[in-house]
Amino acid sequence: MKTNNLIALIAQDAPVRSHLNHMLQQATIAAILMTAIAFFSVIGFRADIDTAIDTGRFLFKFVITIALAVSGGLVMFRIGKPGLSLRLQTWGLLVPLILAVGAAVFELSVMPSSMWAARMIGHNSRLCLTIIPALSLGPLACFITALRHGAPARPVLAGATAGLMSAGIAATFYAANCNDDSPLFVLLWYPIAISTVVATGALIGRNMLRW
Question: What is the DSSP string of 29-74?
């Protein structure tokens, strides 16, 4: 009897996992489209985008934010399926942090100390703290809705991961508008903005992703 029950559960679980993958894929497409529409309708590229795109510091911001979105997504696509290990994917979350810290350390090594504070404070901290969370709202709603079709064993962590991927997408678009290209600015202000989205996702996950 126990063997029959186990077989039945496995048979029921397979289509659920496939369905969740499909829902998350659709949510990812919708999240990117929603963010793109909001960005180009209201915000847009920075005025000097033609010259900025030729600089390494500008382009490296996208390396960091895309790494954040991808690493968060790798966790999110597994966290809604009970029993799957997250160890490797969780370690992957360190990649964007290592990239950001490495870039900041390099800048500190080549820039006079008298310029460190100015580069870190920048000129657009308020925009960073406002735009990234605002652009994350649509993606976060998409991912939470998709995760409700799964069975995350850790709903708070699932919501936080959804927030992390949402913030990564939003930060990638915002980086095209942000005039502060210093890794010091990115290392200070981007994580603050992203952490508010992660915290919001965790709170929503606790209430909406429980079994």
Answer: HHHHHHHHHHIIIII---TTHHHHTTSHHHHHHHHHHHHHHHHHHH
Calculate the CA 30 to chain-centre distance.
15
DSSP E strand boundaries for 95-181: none
| Predicted confidence (pLDDT) per residue in 118-150, tens digit | 999 999 999 999 999 999 999 999 999 999 988
Residue 7 confidence (pLDDT): 45
Predicted TM-score (pTM) of the model is: 0.88
CB-based contact 201:161 (threshold 8 Å): yes
Angle ∠(150,64,70) on CA atoms, nearest 5? 20
d(CA 8, CA 2): 10
Distances in whole angstroms, Cα of residue 193 to Cα of each of 19, 84, 111, 144, 169? 32, 30, 26, 19, 13
Q: Which of 67-71, 119-123, 129-133, 169-173 bottoms out in mean pLDDT, i.e. has the lowest?
A: 119-123
Contact assessment for residue 161 and residue 78, using Cβ atoms and an 8 Å cutoff: no
- Residues 85, 192, 194, 68, CA torsion sign: negative
Cα of first residue to Cα of last residue in the chain, in angstroms, is 26
Token pair recorded at residue 48: 């000097």
Helical segments of the chain, H only = 2-38, 49-52, 56-79, 87-92, 94-110, 116-121, 125-147, 155-175, 183-208
